[in-house]
Amino acid sequence: MMEALRGLGYSTMAALADIVDNSVSAGAYEVRIDFLWAGTASRISILDDGRGMDDTELESAMTLGDKSALADRAADDLGRFGMGLKTASFSQCRRLTVASFRERGTLCCRRWDLDAIAARPNEGWLLFEGPAAGSESFLAPLSGQGKGTLVLWEVLDRVVTDGFTIDDFADLIDGVEARLAMVFHRMLQGPHPSLSLLVNGRPVEPWDPFMSGHAAKPWESPVATQVTASGLVAVACHVLPHRDLLTPDEYDKAGGPEGWTAQQGFYVYRNRRLLLADGWLGLGQGRAWHREEAHRLARVRLDIPNTADADWKIDIRKSTAHPPVSLRPWLTRLAEDTRDRARRVFAYRGSLRPSPGGVPVEQAWRAEHSRSGMRYRIDGKHPAVAAVLEAAGPLLPLVRSMLRVVEETVPMQRMWLDTAENRETPRTGFSGEPTADVVEVLRALYNDMVGRRGMSVESAKALLMRTEPFQNYLDLIEAISSGGV
Ligand SMILES: Nc1ncnc2c1ncn2[C@@H]1O[C@H](COP(=O)(O)OP(=O)(O)O)[C@@H](O)[C@H]1O
Ligand SMILES: [Mg+2]
User: Which CATH architecture has domain 4-203?
Assistant: First the structure.
């Protein structure tokens, strides 16, 4: 049975997070995770300063399923099945040693050794006392403190597999660090963090998926709640800033451990601990939404209580969760709204600003929906286009053919591919172009308005301010109309 339980499918990261959960539930503030490379004798230890266990508690903790999954748990308890310590550990190692002591108590130590059990199949559940011979010194860091628990993983057969080198070990450590920074970010961040995590002595910096407090964030919703039979569910929706509004460093960091596209969607938390960030939870209109480029800026925070484990089908690894049927329509609505907003910010490179006074902006392109599909048309009412059509005189047929040719040859496939390949929409609206270029185009239009069309300075200004893409260049319009440039 113990060999079988190794195959539950924990990643090293998920296994470590499960051990850290136990420390958090035991009231620990500081948790130190240490990776020590020694080839096949490598080891990983997790040391906390929580309340610790006495001998009886430790024996129960080492027993599979000694606590019932049906039992009520303290509201801040991160456990559930009474399995995690064992299943998480065995998914990575063959020898699990746990040493613990309570304040003013004595140190107790128990050890499971799968090799010893396999060697003596008729001797039952061999739960040893004390560390393995030669491993005594590995418990030393625990004796240095007043109370706490040390979990030691040795014989890491599922980590140090054939061909695994010290470089792979270093990569593993980096990956674990990045994911712990995400999973426990809410405990690690803020003016009064409730947790301090150290990996090989380095403090783990929290990674906040929602860029809380960033000035360029276009939108975030108030918290919406829904009362269910198994407790209160709370949702807060976020749209992150467009790349153009972030420094390259900020942009890279905000992408998160898996990158921008993968990190979109729901972030499900249970007691402020992230359970999963796995896209759109199978929600969608008709068929389930995938994670697409266009929605990469959408992230939704979802809090569930630990009384809702069964309703949400939380698995032993705490790596999956499924929204109960009764909540799906509500969640779908909130997600759809967030996705819409995120798509607009993405498509307009963050520059979709209404014109002053909220008058609709004159757009250069119209999308025409018809039964036979969609077409993109240049809008003859756009001031830059209208001016040419009016002034064209004998050239009018030629100008019209030119516009029609442009409409009929919009390089859609090309734009589509470029967007997918570069993971970014192509630049439009003069973004990244020199100011002089914008000024040149603006001035030609302005001169035509006040010259040929005889408009007043004020009305020319007002019209330009609600003309795409100049609604983003109000200061230039101001400067041109006052003769400043
Ligand atoms: N670091 C720790 N400090 C104190 N107690 C612990 C620690 N780790 C585990 N325990 C005890 O062992 C029990 C079993 O842990 P575990 O197998 O992870 O199951 P669960 O977390 O679902 O209860 C916990 O409920 C807790 O009482
Ligand atoms: Mg646990």
Answer: 2-Layer Sandwich (3.30)
